């Protein structure tokens, strides 16, 4: 699909066709399945989403970081189409398929660490998280799982239980899975102690809690997002993750890096955790792995992955050959187009603009990110850091949408604007998108 890479607003947004579809949607689809924007997509290509009214929107959200290589990338479409015509499904448990095995080999090679590794596939991020915990429990024979404040790991029972935020993710949906323990995350902007010593203090507290309240020998896994996504693009204070990983390795605890949002080039490396030189025991991938097709993975040290007996892992669709073929094309595209470097360049352009904005607008309390995973945290007043109210944040994302730009918020307090553009978005298109976002922000705040 080839759509001109330009913003084009031809109706008010949402336009009449999107509005008509949304009337049907209200009747046919439950409200629990929320929509961030009242827009219906007709087609998409590169960094542009075209809606059913013919508006061309600059996509700075990429379906929550699923289109790191851009929408309908020709290499991904061709790989999926070729596989679609050859074989769509036999179930890996019945007869294996080539893309599954080849993709496992590729993931074993690109994930951090040189030890022998193995990979299994599932369909969604939540399922990858569930499997990682199952594997860690079987390997260690221990029950407890440590998770963090502001964490998001999915919506299935175990993944939801690991997720931090009650509303909207957990409200009224308990009882939750047992043996889950939550600790503070090294969140520099909102650290209650000495901000200069955030990593050190958060780590000391975490290790003490694990020792006193859980007991090291009861902990199967520590699961952590190397850069928290839904929680607000929180980059942990440097040193926190290496300290946790060291503690895990000293006590036979499986260290799981949930790279579902931060991985696959988003943060300027294959996996965000590489930045701190940490080699996790298990890594979960999803989202941009499939370049738009649903597939997720757990990759990890072979002896841990092989701890589960035959038949203990899997599922009907896991590693579907069409999605696996698309994922192989995603990996080749990231390599061929040098997208890790492009992500860094894209991110620098965004951060420069965000920093300039923070100079001018005092409600921009924090500017943070890495690679093309960038955000601003908005506050009512920088002195108190009281989060900006969600209505005003909504007015900003809505204002951007009305100007033809797709932007989404994040954060425990809903006060973070996050950008997740295609890694190689054209600089002029990105600048146009940032101009519109800035105009919407200034309008909503004044
Ligand atoms: N782990 C780190 O970011 C999904 C959720 C959107 P699934 N994030 C987007 C929503 O409102 O549900 C995510 C993540 C991290 C796990 C998941 C879960 O991935 O593919 O949505 O199950």
**Number of structurally distinct domains:** 2
Cofactors and ligands: ligand PLZ
Q: Please state the average pLDDT score.
A: 98
The dominant shape is: globular
Question: Whole-Å distance between the termini?
Answer: 40 Å
CATH architecture of the largest domain: 3-Layer(aba) Sandwich
Give the C-level CATH assignment of the largest domain.
Alpha Beta
* Range of helix content: 25-40%
Indicate the structural class.
alpha/beta
Report on the architecture of this protein.
α12 crosses α13 (427-445). This protein has two domains: 16-59 and 338-445, Aspartate Aminotransferase, domain 1, CATH 3.90.1150; 75-336, 3-Layer(aba) Sandwich (Aspartate Aminotransferase, domain 2), CATH 3.40.640. Helices cover 37% and strands 17% of the residues. The protein is an alpha/beta fold and 446 residues long. The strands form three sheets. It has a seven-stranded mixed beta sheet, with helices on both faces. Strands 11, 12, 13, 15 and 16 form a five-stranded antiparallel beta sheet that branches. The structure holds ligand PLZ. Residues 64, 124-126, 129, 152-155, 225, 229-230, 258, 260-261, 286 line the site of ligand PLZ.
Secondary-structure blueprint of this entry?
Blueprint: H1 16-28, E1 41-45, E2 48-51, E3 56-59, H2 62-65, H3 74-86, H4 98-110, E4 117-122, H5 125-140, E5 144-148, H6 157-162, E6 180-183, H7 198-214, E7 219-224, H8 240-250, E8 254-258, E9 282-285, E10 296-301, H9 302-305, H10 321-336, H11 339-360, E11 364-370, E12 373-381, E13 386-387, H12 390-402, E14 405-406, E15 408-410, E16 416-419, H13 427-445
Parallel strand pairs: 3-14, 5-6, 5-7, 7-8, 8-9
Antiparallel strand pairs: 1-2, 2-3, 4-10, 9-10, 11-12, 12-13, 12-16, 15-16
């Amino acid at each position: 699909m080839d759509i001109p890479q330009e913003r084009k607003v031809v109706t008010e947004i949402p336009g009449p066709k999107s509005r008509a579809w949304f009337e049907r949607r209200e009747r046919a689809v439950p409200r629990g399945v929320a929509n961030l924007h009242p827009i219906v997509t007709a087609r998409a290509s590169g960094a542009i989403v075209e809606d059913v009214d013919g508006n061309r929107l600059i996509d700075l959200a990429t379906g929550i970081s699923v289109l790191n290589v851009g929408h309908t990338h020709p290499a991904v479409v061709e790989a999926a189409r070729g596989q679609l015509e050859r074989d769509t499904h036999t179930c890996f448990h019945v007869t294996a398929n080539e893309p599954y095995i080849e993709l496992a080999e590729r993931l074993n090679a690109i994930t951090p660490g040189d030890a022998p590794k193995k990979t299994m596939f599932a369909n969604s991020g939540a399922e990858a998280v569930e499997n990682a915990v199952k594997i860690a429990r079987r390997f260690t024979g221990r029950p407890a799982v440590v998770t963090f404040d502001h964490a998001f790991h999915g919506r299935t029972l175990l993944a939801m239980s690991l997720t931090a935020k009650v509303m909207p993710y957990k409200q009224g949906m308990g009882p939750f899975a047992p043996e889950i323990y939550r600790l503070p995350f090294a969140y520099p902007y909102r650290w209650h102690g000495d901000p200069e010593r955030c990593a050190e203090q958060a780590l000391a507290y975490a290790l003490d809690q694990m020792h006193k309240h859980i007991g090291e020998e009861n902990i199967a896994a520590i699961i952590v997002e190397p850069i928290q996504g839904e929680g607000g693009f929180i980059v942990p204070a440097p040193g926190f993750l290496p300290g946790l990983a060291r503690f895990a390795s000293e006590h036979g605890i499986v260290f799981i890096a949930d790279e579902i949002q931060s991985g696959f080039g988003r943060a300027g490396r294959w996996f965000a955790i590489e930045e701190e030189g940490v080699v996790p025991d298990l890594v979960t991938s999803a989202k941009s792995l499939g370049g738009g097709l649903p597939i997720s993975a757990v990759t990890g040290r072979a002896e841990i992955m092989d701890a589960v007996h035959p038949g203990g892992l899997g599922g009907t669709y896991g590693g579907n050959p069409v999605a696996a073929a698309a994922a192989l094309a995603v990996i080749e595209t990231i390599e061929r187009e040098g997208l890790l470097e492009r992500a860094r360049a894209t991110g620098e352009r965004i951060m420069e603009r965000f920093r300039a904005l923070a100079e001018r607008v005092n409600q921009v309390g924090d500017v943070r990110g890495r690679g093309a995973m960038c955000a601003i945290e908005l506050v009512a007043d920088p002195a108190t850091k009281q989060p900006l109210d969600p209505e005003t944040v909504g007015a900003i994302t809505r204002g951007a949408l009305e100007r033809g730009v797709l932007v989404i918020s994040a954060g425990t307090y809903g006060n973070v604007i996050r950008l997740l553009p295609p890694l190689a978005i054209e600089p002029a298109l990105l600048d146009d998108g940032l101009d519109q976002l800035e105009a919407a922000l200034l309008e909503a705040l004044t």
